């Protein structure tokens, strides 16, 4: 039996189904409850297997499981163990609870303030945990990003609530959380990762060899992250308000059961959760660096870690 390449995905990420299976595999929420010792043991096994020094009798299933734990809990750039709440494997349970709360508690200013504060605190932690490790962020930059995102979310939420209360049907108020989340993501992520935009991020060839640093790649990666974050929360935050409005009209007593409402919406949100020539033209300095590093053998495609 051929050996497993622990540095490559187990699934074909060139297809949508393969990418879906890969990220579902590595972000399995069940890995959140495992101890740090268990995770470090998995990392050790992956490193040993990479060198061909794994313990005798190690099976392919053990290696694949270790790869899963390693991918779910350790930073892809630095190899450091990530904090519990910032891991992608915690996104489903953590995001589900917070989104359910935002959808249920949106009617008063204190409710909006508390929910947005908790949500932006969680987002800041996730963004910091999954930052590009080759572009470190200072404490001041983190603070500015956090305060800016929280402020923008509150302004968007309270502004939309005030406007829609006077000029739109009641159901529009249910979209206050989505408006706040979308605006905050557009502010928080670029500010949290501003060093990447200013200094660029490392780009590699298909073999993982660093060929330079690119600001264009940083902008593209961060833009994709912003859009994906908004898209991920859109199904639940756009469709659930319509469903809940119908339920409350059919069963008026349900509206008074806030804890039940929050629990139901939390569960339902969980069901919803889910070229080099260009560089030569737009980043001539990068292209020249690539020519120098590769001794004239410039790769047709370059790769980079866009973050999550």
UniProtKB/TrEMBL annotation:
Record bears the keyword Transport: yes
Membrane topology label: Multi-pass membrane protein
GO cellular component: mitochondrial inner membrane
Organism superkingdom: Eukaryota
Keywords linked to the UniProt accession: Amino-acid transport, Membrane, Mitochondrion, Transmembrane, Transmembrane helix, Transport
MF term (GO), any: monoatomic ion transmembrane transporter activity
GO BP, sorted A to Z: serine import into mitochondrion
Subcellular location: Mitochondrion membrane
PANTHER family: SIDEROFLEXIN, SIDEROFLEXIN-2
Family, as annotated: Belongs to the sideroflexin family.
The protein, known as: Sidoreflexin
Organism of derivation: Glossina austeni
């Amino acid at each position: 039996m051929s050996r497993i390449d622990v540095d490559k995905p187990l699934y074909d990420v060139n297809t949508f189904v393969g990418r879906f299976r890969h990220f579902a595999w590595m972000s399995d929420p069940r890995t959140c409850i495992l101890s740090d010792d268990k995770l470090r043991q998995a990392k050790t096994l992956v490193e040993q297997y990479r060198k061909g020094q794994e313990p005798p009798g190690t099976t392919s299933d053990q290696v694949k499981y270790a790869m899963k734990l390693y991918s779910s809990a350790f930073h892809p750039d630095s190899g450091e163990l990530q904090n519990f709440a910032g891991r992608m494997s915690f996104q489903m349970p953590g995001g589900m609870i917070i989104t359910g709360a935002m959808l249920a508690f949106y009617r008063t200013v204190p409710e909006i303030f508390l929910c947005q504060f908790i949500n932006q605190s969680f987002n800041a932690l996730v963004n910091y945990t999954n930052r590009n490790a080759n572009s470190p962020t200072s404490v001041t930059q983190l603070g500015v990003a956090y305060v800016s995102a929280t402020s923008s979310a509150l302004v968007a939420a309270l502004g939309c609530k005030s406007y829609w209360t006077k000029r739109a049907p009641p159901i529009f108020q249910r979209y206050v959380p989505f408006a706040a989340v979308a605006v905050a993501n557009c502010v928080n992520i670029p500010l949290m990762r501003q060093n990447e935009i200013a200094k660029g991020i490392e780009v590699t060839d298909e073999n993982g060899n660093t060929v330079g640093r690119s600001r264009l790649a940083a902008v593209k990666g961060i833009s994709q992250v912003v859009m994906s974050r908004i898209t991920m929360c859109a199904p639940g935050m756009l469709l659930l308000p319509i469903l809940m409005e119908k339920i409350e009209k059919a069963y008026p007593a349900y509206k008074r059961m806030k804890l039940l409402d929050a629990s139901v919406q939390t569960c339902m949100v969980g069901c919803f959760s889910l070229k080099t020539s260009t560089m030569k033209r737009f980043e001539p300095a990068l292209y020249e660096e690539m020519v120098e590093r590769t001794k004239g053998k410039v790769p047709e495609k370059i790769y980079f870690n866009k973050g999550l």
